Fold Delta-aminolevulinic acid dehydratase.
Amino acid sequence: MMIRPRRNRKSAVIRDMVQETQLQAANLIFPLFIIEGNNQKTEVKSMPGIYRYSIDNLLREVESCLNLGLKAFDLFPNIEDSLKDKYATISYQKDNLYLRAIEAVKKNFPEACVVTDVAMDPYSSDGHDGIVENGEILNDETLEILGKMALAHAESGADIIAPSDMMDGRIGYIRQVLDQNGFTNVSLMSYTAKYASAFYGPFRDALNSAPKSGDKKSYQMNPANVREALIEAQLDAEEGADFLMVKPGLPYLDVVKMLHDNFDLPIAVYNVSGEYAMLKAAAQNGWLDAERSTMETLLSFRRAGATAILTYHAKEVLANGWLTR
Ligand code: PBG
């Protein structure tokens, strides 16, 4: 044999020398759940190790992450049912829980990068990402609400706004609202290819945001489709997105790779709640090694071409020193 690929695997030094992709703390974005109250920290049952924090405890959590070198956070609010309505009105009202949280994090830790989620579902009495009328999700009417929400986030100090709603035209609409109000520097991370997935279940538990009726298939993408993601990506790029995101992660690595190969924008991937729950459950049962299965998963996103990885594993990876072994 002239060619023996095993020679490049024969020692740790050579294996490291030929390693094609690396995972760094800078690649990670940590999603955090927020609730009303003081000194609250309640675990999400289907996501062991993940909590909903009141703002005071959120600040403690952000500080401990920053000390570990984890610098980017994506915030999600758990809103009391009594505050929800058909138009998600509370979502852009001054001093609501979410806006107070953004302000508190940026005031105390200006160096933290705060990503905010734009979508109606946590605030909607229908649990949908758009206005529901006779069982249909209205697109253009929803844009107005998303614009108000995004503007409120920018005014509160958001660094990156991430629309997760999948309405048509929302990137261009939000970009215009931000620019007209002087927020030309606020970035947009578009949930470009967001699939109608079963893997969001634990997240909806965390926020109590599941749809009250129907499903999200008329706006989130069909898991059977891949070329359709190119249409979404083309539109987002033209409308001014700064990042293209694929969500969920592991079941859609082909989509990550395809967007990476076809667009020059940075690619983000959301390693969602259900993916986290699967690995945690297996690790807790002793069926999988937590460190190795987690690192292999995160590395697969880098290999497929993502530079930004939204993952509930972000803190444990750093706290356990898994990046440096
Ligand atoms: C909703 C939203 C969802 C997630 C992020 N933003 C759920 C959904 O679309 O129902 C899921 C994230 C996760 O599962 O970790 N706009």
